Amino acid sequence: MTVGDLIDRLSALDPAAPVRLAVNPFFPMAHTIAGVVEARDETGEPVVFLADSGDQLGPLPPQVAVRLAWQEPTTAPARSRRRATRPAAGQ
């Protein structure tokens, strides 16, 4: 993805929405972004880094992990009703 691709995707979204960083597809977590830094890669080409603030917000919402193709859509298994327990006779 290039800066232009990112700008194109972001321009269609609410400019007041907070930005989060999705990290680690095997244990997906949400983080806040602290900054944007331009640098040069090992070949001298420009590259842009989004910096993690260190503030981990908790697990990534499942629907986000699914849209990123990090997880398969899942449905919680059906739960059967538990039978009420009754005290044994004489208790």
Describe this structure in words.
The protein has a domain at 19-74. Strand 2 (29-40) and strand 3 (46-59) form a beta hairpin. The relative contact order is 0.16. With 91 residues, the chain is α+β, with helices and mostly antiparallel strands. The mean pLDDT is 87. The radius of gyration is 22 Å and the shape is elongated. The chain has helices at residues 3-11, 62-67; strands at residues 20-23, 29-40, 46-59. It has 2 helices and 3 strands, in the order H-E-E-E-H. Residues 71-91 are annotated as: Disordered.
Provide key terms for this protein.
91 residues, alpha+beta, 3 strands
Shape: elongated
Summed over residues and divided by their number, the pLDDT gives a mean of: 87
The major beta sheet can be summarized as: 3 strands, antiparallel
Low-confidence stretches: none
Strand order, largest beta sheet: 1-2-3
Number of helices: 2
Structural class: alpha+beta
Fraction of residues in β-strands: 25-35%
Share of helix, binned? 10-25%
Query: What is the count of β-strands?
Result: 3
